[in-house]
Design brief:
Blueprint: E1 2-8, E2 11-12, E3 17-21, E4 27-31, E5 38-46, E6 50-60, H1 71-74, H2 87-104, E7 121-123, E8 134-135, E9 138-139, E10 145-148, E11 155-156, E12 181-186, E13 192-197, H3 222-235, E14 239-243, E15 247-252, E16 255-260, H4 271-286, E17 293-298, H5 304-314, E18 320-327, H6 330-339, E19 345-349, H7 352-355, E20 364-367, H8 376-384, E21 389-394, H9 397-409, E22 413-421, E23 430-436
Parallel strand pairs: 4-6, 7-22, 17-18, 17-20, 18-19, 20-21
Antiparallel strand pairs: 1-5, 2-3, 3-4, 5-6, 8-12, 9-10, 10-11, 12-13, 13-14, 15-16, 21-23, 22-23
Helix pairs in contact: 2-9, 4-5
Length: 438
């Protein structure tokens, strides 16, 4: 780390950093800064074309700066990285950052007559705190429980503002072993469940392959390799139940899931219902022909979004002929198999890119890939199957924009897109796009 003097922040970038320029005109991404502020900074990373830095002192503060709303973030934890910004203002910054990457990376011109206006950020709740129903704190050498200091193994034991408060009560009294992590989950019935995760086994990695002119792996394997590595890390970790039951009850629409404590469920307590409603609305908006729908639910987890169309059919929406649910996680698929028993759902376990070629042609594709996005190979396979409608979801703005660009380059058109404040007090955004085929 090296001190770098003072800069004036003029913008805000996807990823949550303020944008400034140093004395040589080089772009500096400043963590902890808001547009309009004068701050002193220290460099974290310096390169020829840009640098990364963090705020040492705020010299002239933005009118939108507030005392941090998250005690853990205020103490240095890497959780609520925008807790120092007034929530409404932070939402505008993130909406603008999403619009920026849609232009720069996606090559869209929102509002040009062919593309929808840039999406504003839709709140999922009035309160930006107490929204999280899944969290994963660490256990320190003396049994203390907390979040890691950003860039360090040290723990912050003051609470994060994100989780529902009852989730954090008495965690240090559960007898977790030092060096482990805790998977803490809250069900829709209000019951808390806690499992201890043994330290992850190291995962080796091969050499990166050359990137093509658009910054991607030339052989299309980059995203699949990252997803496989995450899966191996998860599979290698043994668990020990400390509180509650082995599975977490989650109810939505007409279905009930029993999800493993360590399994995936949307982090925001209001997100599953909001996304399910959005999927139903987008299918209706697309004007699907009046026949039972054939659906692909890719990266589908426990099948919540596919199930949303089943619930919609029960309420007078389009009938569903069948759903192909594709997911790599065995626990999620087991939960789907129980929750959707008797429904026209066929479960396929495997990597999406390797499975879709064997699926029957779809009318609707729902794709909710991991943070790295779906990537060109999967999108080529999806568009090659010629669905009438694609509903694509992303939790990383840059990956979302790249994926949408790939659809458009293959003849699809963005009919609508929406963005959700699914991770309050952070820089993250969840976005959903409706695309229609040629």
């Amino acid at each position: 780390m090296s001190l770098a003097g003072e800069v004036t922040v003029t913008g805000f970038a996807n990823g949550g950093a303020g944008v400034a320029h140093d004395a040589d005109g080089r772009v500096v991404f400043v963590r902890g800064a808001l547009p309009g502020e004068r701050v002193s900074i220290a460099y974290d990373d310096q390169r020829a074309s840009f640098a990364k830095a963090h705020v040492v002192e705020v010299i002239e503060a933005s009118e939108h700066r507030v005392d941090p709303l998250c005690p853990a973030a205020a103490a240095g934890a890497g959780c609520c990285d925008l807790a120092y910004a007034e929530p409404g203002y932070a939402a505008r910054l993130r909406a603008d950052a999403l619009a920026d990457v849609l232009r720069r990376i996606g090559r869209f011109t929102p509002g040009d007559g062919r593309t929808p206006e840039a999406p504003g950020l839709r709140a999922l709740a009035d309160d930006p705190t107490g929204w999280r129903v899944r969290t994963r704190p660490a256990v320190g050498p003396s049994g203390e429980v907390g979040l890691r200091v950003r860039g360090s193994a040290d723990l912050i034991t003051v609470p994060c503002a994100g989780p529902v408060p009852t989730m954090l009560t008495g965690l240090a009294d559960l007898g977790a072993r030092p060096g482990t992590e805790l998977a803490v989950a809250l069900g829709s019935d209000g019951a808390r469940h806690v499992a201890e995760l043994a330290p992850a086994a190291p995962v080796g990695g091969g050499r990166g392959r050359r990137a093509d002119g658009r910054g991607r792996r030339a052989d299309g394997r980059g995203r699949r390799a990252a997803q496989s590595a995450r899966g191996r890390r998860s599979a290698a970790r043994s668990t020990r139940l400390l509180d509650g039951a082995e599975s977490v009850t989650q109810e939505l629409g007409g279905h009930r899931w029993e999800v493993p404590v360590t399994g995936f469920w949307q982090a925001h307590r209001a997100a599953p219902e909001a996304y399910a409603r959005t999927v139903r609305e987008m299918v209706a908006q697309a004007g699907i022909p009046d026949r039972p729908l054939r659906v692909w639910d890719l990266y589908g987890g426990a099948g919540v979004l596919g199930a949303a169309l089943l619930d919609g059919a029960a309420d007078g929406g389009p009938a569903v002929a069948g759903i192909e649910l594709v997911e790599t996680d065995a626990g999620a698929l087991a939960a789907a198999e129980r929750a959707l028993a008797g429904e026209p759902v066929r479960i396929r376990r495997g990597d999406v890119a390797g499975v879709v070629a064997d699926l029957p042609a779809p009318d609707v594709v729902i794709a909710d890939p991991p943070r790295a996005g779906a990537g060109a190979a999967v999108i080529e396979a999806v568009t090659g199957a010629a669905p009438r409608v694609v509903i694509h979801i992303g939790c990383d703005a840059g990956a979302f924009a790249r994926d949408l660009r790939d659809y458009v380059e293959r003849g699809y058109r963005v009919l609508d897109w929406r963005a959700f404040d699914a991770f309050p007090l952070t820089h993250h955004v969840e976005a959903i796009a409706l695309l229609t085929g040629p």
